[in-house]
Amino acid sequence: MIDPLVIAFGLGVGVLVGLTGIGGGSLMTPLLIIFAGVPPVVAIGTDLAYGAVTKTVGGWRHLRQGTVDLGVSKWLAVGSVPGSLLGVLAVNRLHDRYGSGFDDTLLYAIAGALIIVAATVLCRALFMPHLLERERHTVALSPGVRAGAVGLGFVLGGLVGMTSVGSGALIGLALILVFRLTPHRVVGTDVFHAAVLLWSAGLAHWVTGNVDLLLMGNILLGSLPGVWIGTALITKVPAHGLRPALGCVLLGSALGVLTKAGVNLPAAVIVGVPAGAGLAAFVLHRLRGTPPVAQAEAATA
Asked: Which residues cross the membrane (predicted)?
């Protein structure tokens, strides 16, 4: 059956994924649980499965636009793919042994980390502009960088396999803070890598019977045009505007994860808090004027 509400969720989240690389698991899973009444395990599995298709479309678009660092994506995937498979296996074992209490503990920890990350990204973009000068278009793949990418991918891949959260938000954070890529390269690399990661995790959940194919089809009806729209818009969004946008979406992801953990947050809070942070960032930017880094970006564009 066609469900207009689920299609609308897919459209909105698809635009966010295409534009920022973030929002898939961190927002869609809570939306399915809260508003569509989907059981959590099925919501996680279906979310990962639809995300694989959506981010494949987005990743291909970003690759054509030149916003993907293939080297970083490859070495992250070397760790994240086996990590995600182990995560799916672990969540099934831990559910059998401890029940849903384990999920709540893990989700609270992830939500807390995302709130800290969102605050860090926003403060870095708005109040520490000198740090932005360290951003780079690509990363030199030394042995240490490759090993770090594999290890980081393994840990975050495990979290994605267990909760569906983090393929965009947490990997995107690593690309910002660890690899220091420019915002457009963060989004493109994040989406491209997530496509690989989500195929492995989504197929594992499908094998274990956690994917609702009808629900997945409804989401895709909205998310595929949404991600196409988002990726088309990214080249029209200036980097100095995309940085605080990434922070706001991370904040929204954190609130979405809290609702997934059982915290009763109304939809107005989940939408209003990130929107308020974005408005504050816009006002501060207008009062401060165009920063030197943005001027340099405009001159080289």
From this structure: 6-24, 31-53, 73-94, 106-127, 147-179, 191-207, 213-234, 265-284
Question: What span, in angstroms and rounded, lies between the C-alpha atoms of 204 and 202?
Answer: 5
Whole-number Cα distances in Å, 127 to 31, 113, 131, 291, 297: 33, 20, 10, 11, 18
What is the domain range of residue 78?
4-291
Q: What does pTM read for this prediction?
A: 0.77
Could you tell me if residue 212 is left (phi over 0), alpha (psi between -120 and 50 degrees) or otherwise beta? beta
pLDDT of 151-183, one tens digit each?
Answer: 999 999 998 888 887 777 778 778 877 888 887
Residue 163: inside a domain, yes or no?
yes
For residue 84, being part of any structural domain is answered with: yes
Please, what is the Cα angle at 148 between 64 and 171, to 5 degrees? Answer: 50
Domain count, the chain: 1
Residue 300 within a domain: no
Structural contact between residues 94 and 102, judged by C-beta atoms closer than 8 angstroms: yes
The structure tokens 């690309």 sit at 175
